[in-house]
C-alpha cells in the first residue's frame, strides 16, 4: 500500500512539475504595484514616479499612456497611473489595471481641496474609446463600465 501511494505521489509531482514548466500554457502576468505616493503629490513627483501627468499646459510621460492604450487594444496586460491636476493644483489620481480582458479603474480625489471626499472609488470597464466634446476636442474615455458615469476622461 505504501509503495502504491509513493508511486502515485511521485507521478503526480512529475506531472505538476511538467505542467508548470510548459511554455505553451498561458500563465497570468503579475503586475507590479504602483509606486508609493509621496505628499504633497506635486507634478514633478508624479512624473518621477512614472505617472502620466495631465496639466492644463500639457501632458508628461505621454508615451506611457500611448503604450497602455496600445496594450489594451492588443489585449496585453498592463497598468498605468494617471495624475490629473485641477485649476487649483489639486491632484486627482486614476490607477488603471488591464488584465487582458477588463480594466480595473480606481479614482482618488482625496488630495483635491474641492474633491468629493467620497474616498477611493473603483469601477470595471471593458476598454478605452474616444469621445468628442461639443467644442470639438477629443478625449479618451473608459467604455463599457459596470458603474454608470465613469469619471475618467483624458485629452487625446
UniProtKB/TrEMBL annotation:
The keyword Signal applies. Keywords: Signal. Residues 1-20 form the signal peptide. This is Uncharacterized protein DUF4362. It comes from Paenibacillus pabuli.
